[in-house]
Amino acid sequence: MYSTEIFEQLYTKLGKARFGGKVATYIPELGCVDPNHFGVSLTTIKGESFHYGDHDVRFSIQSVAKVFALVMAEGCGAELRKRVGVEPSGGSFNSLIQLELHKGIPRNPMLNAGALVVCDVLCQQLNSPKEELLEFVRRISGSPAIGFNERVAQSELKTGFRNEALVQFMRSFGNINTKLAELMDFYCHLCSIEMSTAELAQSFNFLANRGINPLTGKPELKPTTARRINAIMQTCGFYDEAGEFAFRVGLPGKSGVGGGIAAVHPGEYSIAVWSPRLGDKWNSYAGMRFLESWTSYAEDSIF
Ligand code: GLN
Question: pLDDT tens across 241-264, in order?
């Protein structure tokens, strides 16, 4: 059922949809990418991998990395539940509106505000947050060469006024402890992590495998926590398009403004796609449609 040929056919069948949407430029460096890239990788929990297209080209995974931060913060045993909710927001990823209503408690950890609280926890609890983050991502992906894209990180640091506003607003409610510059540095580096779809699919594999890293045979998370993180991805991973993604694709997943999407079919596989042009809710336009055609073809929605 899984094969490179099927991926190629499904991608070709997308027709004009392959070119729908626009590359994000609000982080100037993201605008430098060739919009015509497309890559997809699927890795089963038994260790088989299938790829098509630019599966070995690294790109900026942006908000997909919020899942890594959340997994690490769960590992810290932090009392996250009191500081970040688990409800879909129905709003955009960088919205400020709900924070006022909810007294500085973000609706969920997939929003920028929620991820910034998760990053605050990591900055407070870890000795070297950036190094430990890379160590974690290298372990779960099996790729020791993964790193930050310094140009992307610096580009976002120079222009991330909205994220700074979110941080300071939450600080006014007592929900942020780390100094602004330190927190922004960590958050922007998190978002700047560069991976290929092959590496991304491998790195999400433990979430399809009850928290056990198939590469090491060791747990990255308890099975209950892995299930909960999948639930958060399902309900919140695509912001105000989370319902649409569940409706069209039917897998827990997470998108990023670099055009990447990682998704899991618990008990079966993880899959990553990359296509830099985004739809109007800032999720990869062709990526989402490719995954829709994949789960339709494979009759593989978790629903
Ligand atoms: N670094 C981006 C930001 O904070 C991440 C957003 C995203 O990928 N949706 O704006």
Answer: 999 999 999 999 999 999 999 999
The tokens describing 258, both together, are 């670099």
* Atom 6 of ligand 1, nearest CA residue: 63
Cα first-last separation, the chain: 19
pTM exceeds 0.85: yes
Find out whether the beta carbon of 156 lies less than 6 Å from any atom of ligand 1.
Answer: yes
Q: Whose CA is nearest to atom 4 of ligand 1?
A: 112
Secondary structure (3-state) at 67: helix
Report pLDDT for 94. Answer: 94
Our answer on whether the CB atom of 159 is closer than 6 Å to any ligand 1 atom is: no
The residue whose CA has the least distance to atom 3 of ligand 1 is 112
Distance CA 297, CA 70 (A): 32
> What is the C-alpha to C-alpha distance for residues 238 and 233, in angstroms, rounded to an integer?
8
The DSSP H or E segment spanning 147 is: strand 147-148
Question: Ligand 1: does its nearest atom lie under 6 Å from the Cβ of 163?
Answer: yes
Q: Is 155 in the pocket of ligand 1 (CB under 6 A)?
A: no
Q: For the residues 218-241, what does the mean pLDDT come to?
A: 96
Of all helices (H) and strands (E), which one includes residue 50?
A: strand 49-53
Class of domain 4-298: alpha beta
Helix axes 180-192 and 65-75, enclosed angle (nearest 10): 120
- Report the share of the chain in percent with pLDDT over 90: 95
Q: Rounded to whole angstroms, how far apart are CA atoms 301 and 297?
A: 10
For ligand 1, the distance from its centroid to the CA atom of residue 221, given in whole angstroms, is: 25
